[in-house]
Amino acid sequence: MMLRALRKKIDVKFVLILALVLTVVMAGQIGGYIVLLNQVLDEENARNQMLAETNHDLREQVFALQEQYLAIPNQLEVNPVAALGSWAAEKGAKPVQHEGRDAIVARYKKRKVRRDVGKPGRFVVDEYDGSGAVSFGLFENGEPKNVVLEYRFKGVPQDQLQADVDKIVADNAGADAIVRKIGALKSSLADAALAAENSRVEILFQFDQIKQKDAAVDDFVERVKTLVAGSGLLAILVAISAAYMVGRMLITRSLVRLKQALKDIAAEKEVSLREVERKDEIGALAIGLHQIQDAQKEANRLRASRDAEREKTKRRVEERLTAVADSLERGMRTSMKDLTNRAHDMTDKAAGLTRLAHDNQAQADQASQLAGANAETAAKILQLSENLVSNGDQMSRAVDQQRHLTGLASRDVAASQKTVEELQRAADQVEEIVQIIQDIAGQTNLLALNATIEATRAGSAGSGFAVVAQEVKKLSAETARSTQEISNRIQAIRSVSGSAAKAIATIDDRIADVNGAMGELTRSCESQIKASRSIAGHVKSSAENAEKVAGSNQSIQRSAETSGEAAGQLSGAMGGIVQALNGMREELFGILHAASRTEGAAPEGARPKVGMESGGAANNEADNVVYMPAAAE
């Protein structure tokens, strides 16, 4: 960086010297250019001035001829109205139009005057407001427009105005007026032709002068181009020569010596430069070379101490990584132990669920048998109802037996309901255990993340811990999948137990209906003869309810069998989880021990990235390690 900066400064100085020489040379050349350019500009300005004057004269003459040409019809025109209008405008008369009969009658009271202004070529001179005024009618294609134009002359008497109007009319009426106008036009054209010839001669003379001026300007420009090219080439040669001499004296020789000194320093030879006394960039570069030589000596001295410090840093990093491995192993051992204990608890819960399912199935079988007996009893009651009058005592005993059987069925239903509730509570407990396992898996994942961070900080020395962290992440993912399967099976058990609870509630309702029917039957026995038909109907209803109870007991039996199968599957899954956890624990501990042995046997040339910049950075980096606590319940 310093050499680049010095090189830039030397280049800047060289450029400044070259710029100074070029400035002196170019200043003289530019001065000559300015003088020559001013002369060229003066010649060009003179030529342009001549062209501008000639162009101006031509334009004025063309415009004058154009005006004369356009005025020829007017000069030959014999129109008293137009002549009078032009003369009135020159005198400053005020024009006033009277349009319509009413306006004309209001202005001209006399009929004779109105007739005169209504004829073409007739002019009426009268007095208006103490001054003279002349009026005439306006016509279009020989037809009157019912409009009278009046010119009012301020301060002009009527007599004088009448004389002037008569003269204008006389000059612009008849053949004599046309002859006079033609003569005047000929005289004017003759004068214009003479003036045009004089202008042509003068313009030709000006064109000759312009051609001479153009030739002189072109010759002068060619001489200026030759002079500019020669002076530019001379300036380039002078600048190159001056730059070479200055660079040779001030820069090149010293740079050659500095280059040789740099080679000697690279070969660890002693050098001494006299350029250190200079106050410019060359001197700064020489001082820098001496500083490089001193720094080389200091680097040789520090290299030995740095190697010793590197060995110390390596040992500290190895000790710190070993401590991290031990802490990780202790945390994982505690987490795995707690996870195994909870898995055993889940196995016990699954076994309890299996036993509850078997009990529920047995109670369902008993309820089914009671329902069958209830159906048989209802059939007997139906048969006895046909002989109700003669067998009242026998039917009463049958009714009592039926009520006893329905009471037993009600108790069995209550026991089944209790079993289903216990199954629900067991499922809730298993789900809590699944949540705990998921929390433990999350903490295990955090431990793996901590190990990954430590391995990253340790650099190449912690590659073994990176492998350990990856394996821990895989085991945590497998645990999460197993707990998800258990959760799905628990949901299935809940669904089955819910169906069983609904079926049991239905059975309870049916038994209540049977008890109600039995009550009605008991009351009906007091009036056997009057209610024989009613008793037969109730007995029939009781038989139908008994059949429904039997069907509901079959549903309970199927639900109990399904619950038993689900509990057996849960028990098998928990056994598999326990085996997987034991295998995971053994595998994880084996990986940790293998990583510890690998870190302890690291090659001699391996160095961690921590502590490379300075000797004390390794301790500070190791002290900032944060350890994740072991998983707790």
Folded structure, characterized:
This protein is mostly helical and 633 residues long. It folds into three domains: 2-67 and 198-254; 81-173, no CATH class; 307-600, Helix Hairpins (Orthogonal Bundle). 82% of the residues lie in helices and 5% in strands. The chain has eleven helices and four strands; from the N terminus they run ααβααβββααααααα. The chain has helices spanning 2-76, 80-91, 101-107, 111-117, 158-171, 175-266, 281-386, 392-458, 463-525, 532-600, 617-623; strands at 94-99, 124-128, 131-140, 143-152. It has a four-stranded antiparallel β-sheet with strand order 1-4-3-2, sandwiched between helices. β3 (131-140) and β4 form a beta hairpin. The protein is flat and about 170 Å long. It starts with a helix and ends in a 10-residue tail after the last helix.
Task: Describe this structure in a few short sentences.
The protein is mainly alpha-helical and 633 residues long. It has helices at 2-76, 80-91, 101-107, 111-117, 158-171, 175-266, 281-386, 392-458, 463-525, 532-600, 617-623; strands at residues 94-99, 124-128, 131-140, 143-152. Strand 3 and strand 4 form a beta hairpin.
